[in-house]
Amino acid sequence: MPSGTTRGRLRAEILLVLGLSLGASAVYSVVQILDLLTRPTPLSSQTANLNNSLNSRELFDFVYQVLGIAFDLVPVILVGFLLWQAASPHLARLGLDLSSGRRFWRDALGGAGLALAIGVPGLALYFAGRAIGITVDVVPTNLAAHWWTVPVLLLSALRSGVTEEVIVVAYLFARLRDLGWRPVWILLSAALLRGTYHLYQGFGAFVGNAVMGLVFGWLYLRFGRILPLVIAHFLMDAAVFVGYPWAAAAFPALFGTPG
User: Fold this and answer.
1) Residue 23 lies in a domain
2) What is the pLDDT, as a whole number, of residue 89?
3) What angle do CA 93, 108, 232 make, to 5 degrees?
4) N or C: which end of the chain has fewer CB within 10 A?
5) Integer distance in angstroms from the first to the last C-alpha of the chain?
6) Is residue 67 part of a domain?
7) Distance of CA 26 to the CA centre of its chain
8) Which are the contacts of 117, defined by CB distance < 8 A and separation ≥ 6?
9) What is each CA distance from 241 to 71, 138, 205, in whole angstroms?
10) Are 85 and 77 a contacting pair, CB within 8 Å?
11) What letter does residue 138 receive in the DSSP assignment?
12) Rounded distance, CA 173 to CA 168, Å?
C-alpha cells in the first residue's frame, strides 16, 4: 500500500474512479438488459448501436465525435496520474515501460497475435449467441460515410482499448493488490466487471467479454505488460468498426441486413 494511504481511502478512490468510468457503464448496462428483457420483443430481435451519429450536420457531428472521445479518456489520465504518483519507476507501475524499441515491437507483435486468438473465437461466440437468441444484434457503426468516418472509428477503437485495459487491468489490479487481495480474486472481479459493462449486448457478450477478461488478466499477472492488451483490444475493435459496413454488405443474410 502506498505510504500514507489508508485502506478506506483506497476503497473510496476505486469507487470514485469506477463511478466516473466503467463502473457507471456496468450499472447502466444492467439496467439496459433488464429493460430489454422486459419488452415483448425477443432479445435476439433487438439492436445495440455503437458509434452513432451525434448531429445531422457533418461538421458538428465530427466535432461532437472528437470531443466525446477526448473526454472519455479523462478517467484514463486520472488513473495514470494516481498510479504515477504512487510508484517509482512510474511507467513500470502502469505496465508501460518503453525502455527500448525492441520491447515495443515485441508488445505490438504479441498484441496482434492476441487479437487473432481472441477475436476469431469472439466473433464465433457472437454469432452463436445470435443463433440461440441470447445476444442482441450489435451494429458497430451508424456513422454516415464522410472523409473523417474511418479516422473517428479508429479513434473510437483506441478509446475502448486504452480505457478498458488501463482502468480494468492496470489500475484495478494495482489498487486491489494494494488492498491485499489475492490474485485469483482480482482476476475474477475484473473479468466480472468487464462482462457486466457489455451486458447491454446480451448474455453472449457478457460471457465472451468475461472470458476475454480472464485471459487478459492472466496475461497481465504473468507478464506485467499492459501495452499488448491495449494493442490487441484496439485491433479487434478497429477491425469490427471499420470492417462492419463491408461485411454487412457482403454477407447480408449473416448480419440481418437488406441485400
Assistant:
1) yes
2) 52
3) 85
4) C
5) 58
6) yes
7) 12
8) none
9) 20, 11, 16
10) no
11) E
12) 7
- Residue 133, domain extent: 7-255
User: Looking at residue 45, what is its pLDDT?
Assistant: 92
Q: Distance between CA 123 and CA 94 in Å, rounded?
A: 30
> In this structure, which amino acid lies at residue 103?
R
Q: Which three cell numbers stand for residue 22?
A: 466503467
Mean per-residue pLDDT pooled into runs of 10, the chain (259 residues): 76 96 98 96 93 95 97 94 68 62 84 95 91 93 91 97 96 94 98 98 96 97 94 96 78 58
Residue with cell 470531443: 67
DSSP letter, residue 167: I
pLDDT of residue 94: 65
The alpha helices in 165-226, defined as continuous H runs, are 172-178, 183-196, 203-223
Domains: count for the chain: 1
Please state, as a whole number, how many other Cβ atoms lie within 10 Å of the Cβ of residue 40.
Answer: 5
Q: What are φ and ψ of residue 179, in 5° steps?
A: -85, -5
Examine residue 82 and state whether it is found in any structural domain, yes or no. Answer: yes
pTM: 0.91
256 conformational bin, left if phi > 0, alpha if psi -120 to 50, beta if neither = left
